[in-house]
Amino acid sequence: MQGEEEMVMSTELYDRTFEPLAVKQALASKFDFFNYDSQSQGHDPSVLTHISGVRFGSVGVLRHVGFGHRRGSRGVDHIRADHRDDFLLVLPVHGLSTIAQAGSEIEVEPGTFSMLRTAKPFDIAIIPRSNRNYRQYMVKVPGPLLRIRAPGIDDFCQRAFAVESGVGAILKSLIWLSMREGQRLTEAQSLGFGEMLVDAIANTTRDAPDTVQRLSAGRSSYARICATAEHFIESHISDPDLDPARVAKHCNVSVGYLHAAFSSHAKTVSTFIRDTRLLYSRAALR
Q1: Phi, psi of 14, rounded to the nearest 5 degrees
Q2: Which of 9, 65, 125, 228 has the smallest number of Cβ neighbours within 10 A?
Q3: CA 184, CA 40: separation in Å to the nearest integer?
Q4: How far apart are CA 43 and CA 110, in angstroms?
Q5: pLDDT of 33
Q6: Do 138 and 90 meet the contact criterion of CB atoms below 8 Å apart?
Q7: CB 4 within 8 A of CB 178
Q8: pLDDT of the residue at 90
């Protein structure tokens, strides 16, 4: 979008640079988004992340800019402590986002957006391009508010919607303008603009004829995670510190999500590690 690179970060709600580990607290407290765990990967932890956001009534818009890989997860414990029923729109501008929820995974590239629900556990990873830079928008909409306009919207999560033309392009423009012009609105105008954003999201997800669904080679996320975990365990079986936490970190998911992936497996993560050790030990003795 022309002019997006030079946009001025003038926002009503918050505009600040964070240490990577402080992003979690910022999203929950400053932006009133939701509780989840966040961590940076693959770069110096001193690298900062810039977050800015604005609210339009109960609708929140956030812009996230930084470097390196980032991963966030919202698990059952977060949901028990924070009973939110929101939809979260994820719109990458630079880099891509990988979203895993309800046993499936989707890659969301620039030019598309996807939706997820905060009432269900999820994992989200931000993967930068070659220059290691990422830029991403998020829009939080209360579930009941969106369902009124788009009944059955829950079925539209884990899909990618194009934003390069038609109604999708209008939605993308509104999100960008909300960050640039949000602080100039009166309270009444702000509420009206929030309603406009919700309508645009509803129209895009409900009416888009060219919904793009990019599931990982037709395999469920659980199956992919299990395969990755098993390979890692087998190749690190001699490491005495190998445990579910380390396996989960390698798979880029939370420990809870790893256990959930193994729930349809014949063995738990710990049992698989133990049995693999015994198998390799017997082979070595022979």
Answers
A1: -165, 150
A2: 9
A3: 34
A4: 22
A5: 52
A6: yes
A7: no
A8: 94
**Using an 8 Å Cβ cutoff, are 234 and 272 in contact?**
no
Q: Using the structure block, give the residue that is written with the tokens 């890692």.
A: 232
Q: Which residues of 212-236 are buried (b: 16+ CB within 10 A; e: fewer)?
A: eeeeeeeebbbebbbebbbebbeee
- The token pair at 154 is 């829950």
CA distance linking residue 85 with residue 144, whole number of Å: 8
Phi and psi (nearest 5°) for 160? -110, 130
| The residue type at 100 | A
- With a CB cutoff of 8 Å and minimum separation 6, the contacts of 216 are 105, 106, 107, 224
Give one DSSP letter per residue of 141-164, joined into a string: EEHHHHHHHSTTGGGGTT-BEE-S
d(CA 259, CA 86): 25
Tokens of 214: 């990019």
**How much is the pLDDT for 126?**
83
Along the chain (286 residues), what's the average pLDDT of each consecutive run of 10 residues? Answer: 34 42 48 48 53 86 81 79 86 89 85 89 80 84 88 81 89 92 89 93 74 39 77 84 90 80 75 84 71
Provide the token pair at 250: 């390698």
Q: Which two tokens stand for residue 183?
A: 């602080």
Nearest to 49 by CA among 69, 34, 29, 78: 69
List the one residue out of 125, 157, 122 whose CA is nearest residue 143.
157
pLDDT of residue 36: 46
The one-letter amino acid code at 197 reads L
Nearest alpha carbon to residue 87 among 139, 36, 35, 125 = 139
Predicted confidence at residue 285, as pLDDT, reads 75
